[in-house]
Amino acid sequence: MPLPNGSIVQYGDIVLLIGKDRRTFIRTVTEHQRFECHLGYIDYDDLVGTPYGTQAPTHLGHKLFVLIPHTDDIVRHLQREGQIIYPKDLGYIALKLGIRPGIRVLEAGTGSGALTLTLALLVGESGHVYSYERRANMQSRAIANIRRLDLLDRVTFHQRDIADGFDERGVHALFLDVREPHHYLEQARAALRGGGFFGALVPTANQVIDLIQPLYNGPWFLLEVEELLLRAYKTTPARIRPDDQMIGHTGYLVFARAVEREDRSEPDTLDPAGEDEPDDDTSRAEE
Ligand SMILES: C[S@@+](CC[C@H](N)C(=O)[O-])C[C@H]1O[C@@H](n2cnc3c(N)ncnc32)[C@H](O)[C@@H]1O
Questions:
Q1: Does 109 sit behind a cis peptide bond, omega within 30 degrees of 0 on the bond before it?
Q2: In a domain, 266, yes or no
Q3: Partners of 16 in the beta sheet?
């Protein structure tokens, strides 16, 4: 069981411990070992049997809430190398790719495994994630992160440059988080089943342009370019207002559906209403 489902702490549970100062710790409850932090230590043996949602005392008398972490907590605490996909984007990506229990989904690059673990949690025991990464050190980091959540049996890791293609065929969805995703569209289309969901995250508008053009001309439909802005609020009851700082930009999200179609290098014809200029519209929604 990757994350606890029970109402009391058991050995092997991944728990979130948090004190009044809001510093959070995610740990695995391990026999004969102890959790230590700036507020003191708690023997895990004493934590077993504690109801979730209650407080456990450290040896110094400080109290920590014992909670079940959610995916957002897990991603924020990942051991990471390099940039990960932020939780605000992860949830939406999963929604747009139609991720659900039982499906097969492919991603590259693995990086630290933030998307990998999100997908692995969502596809359940009957689904599977195939993850490609060309750098061995990144892949090792991701494998350690996925192992910690006990999700390794849901993921197949490939160490390979995706320029050499994907082994899988007929996957339900495919996501690219690599520097130049437009170079790998042929490989992506070959792995996806007809109608499959394609997505990519790119940090710059220039990369969006590089990606949109071949998607528009190739065997793809329902192109979308989106960006998510998330603003958090201070929660002091008498002074509820936006936080002073926010993450201004993470990346652009590009989505499309894999289809069979003749190569299109000519501009679209006008839509039935005749309102759109052919060169301005890349959505194809009216086709
Ligand atoms: C931004 S990181 C991915 C982060 C990951 N999605 C996450 O959420 O943790 C990009 C990764 O793609 C890998 N990469 C870049 N180009 C690649 C290629 N052509 N084939 C395989 N991996 C590639 C890089 O080594 C890097 O680890």
A1: yes
A2: no
A3: 26, 67
Is the same domain home to 54 and 188?
no
* Residue 260 alpha carbon to ligand 1 centre in Å: 28
pTM of the entire structure?
A: 0.90
| Same domain, yes or no: 215 and 154 | yes
Which residue segment(s) compose the domain that 85 sits in? 79-258
Q: Which of 72, 88, 110 to mutate to test the pocket of ligand 1 (most atoms within 8 A of CB)?
A: 110
Closest ligand 1 atom number to CA of residue 160: 21
| Per-residue pLDDT reduced to its tens digit, 183-198 | 999 999 999 999 999 9
Indicate the number of domains in the chain. 2
What distances in angstroms separate CA 153 from CA 14, 64, 140, 156, 243, one per listed residue?
Answer: 18, 33, 16, 8, 40
HSE-CB for 30 with a 13 A CA cutoff: 8
- Say if 218 falls within a structural domain: yes
Q: Kindly state whether residue 238 falls inside one of the protein's structural domains.
A: yes
Smallest Cα–Cα separation from 227: which of 245, 198, 249, 200? 249
Strands 40-43 and 34-37: antiparallel
Domain annotation covers residue 43: yes
**Which residues contact residue 110 at a Cβ distance below 8 angstroms, ignoring those fewer than 6 apart?**
116, 131, 132, 133, 138, 139, 142, 157
pLDDT, one tens digit per residue, over 116-142 is 999 999 999 999 999 999 999 999 999
279, exposed or middle or buried, with CB in 10 Å at 0-12, 13-18, 19+?
exposed
CB of 71 closer than 6 angstroms to any ligand 1 atom: no
Q: Which domain CATH number covers 51?
A: 3.10.330.20
